[in-house]
Amino acid sequence: MDWVEVTVKTTTEGADIVAQIFYEIGVTGVVIEDPDAVRQAQQEERTWDYIDDAILANMEDDVLVKAYISNDAAFYDKLQFVKERIKRLREQDFGVDMRPLEVILANVREEDWANNWKKYYKPVKVSDRIVIKPTWEKYEKKPGEIILEMDPGMAFGTGTHETTMLCIRMIDRYVKPGDTVVDIGCGTGVLAIASVLLGASHAVAVDLDSNAVRAAGGNTRLNRVEDRVEVICGNLLDKVRGPFDIAVANIIADVIVDLAGSITDFLKPGGVFIASGIILERLQDVTDAVRKAGLELIGRDTMGEWAVVVCRRNA
Description:
Layout: E1 3-10, H1 15-24, E2 31-33, H2 35-43, H3 53-57, E3 63-70, H4 75-91, E4 102-105, H5 110-116, E5 124-125, E6 130-134, E7 146-150, H6 162-174, E8 180-184, H7 190-197, E9 202-207, H8 210-222, E10 229-233, E11 244-250, H9 253-260, E12 267-279, H10 283-292, E13 296-303, E14 306-312
Parallel strand pairs: 6-7, 8-9, 8-11, 9-10, 11-12
Antiparallel strand pairs: 1-3, 1-4, 2-3, 5-6, 12-14, 13-14
Helix pairs in contact: 6-7, 9-10
């Protein structure tokens, strides 16, 4: 199996936070190259008897957090997930300096992997009815199946990541003909598109990333649903006007916890909130937050290290 070295430039304070992002995509170990740690070790004779000065000479000033990701069908979504999480770190204030937060692929040009990964991306049935099909692949539709054409471009969301599949399965279960849906942090728009293909009358797909907005718009046209899916460039719900029958967010646990307090303002009575992107160790934090917000927890599921929760607004 081929592996791609993915490096994030950060600081000593940011190294553990960045490492956690890699752990969230299933990486079992990371390499942290910290010049400050080497300098400290030089001063502590009990740590190492001898450190060659050439080690420091060959190190960068930034702290490097390195992980190795298998170059398989899941690589694209994993890399895009890392990039999305790093982007959010830049936007949030954690009280520590973590910059530059630059993502680098070793020995792989971005324009190369942007096309090479496609050979691993095949049609996959992700729910009872929805089949995600890359536009360049052939697939013979079976009875009862709904084909969702997908070209991710440079945005997160091929539809094959565990969190995306969990969301689509719940959308397949809960969407009703005529429902209105909002997809918060839409990426490629796959969840909004799936919603209308499954019977929703209208969906709003919102994302702050311009690449995602372009990809989502393109995918609505590929699936001939551009008249039923509105794509908006905005931060979470800032530019969205509800209420909706269903809100879906495939983001991260911290954002879902923050959203829980205000999501009821965007849901109709009886409306459903589907949330994923939740690493299992944060599942309790999310369930506590939605219950505190007065939402009724009506369902949840897991896949690998990830979870989805489904809540209802009862009043």
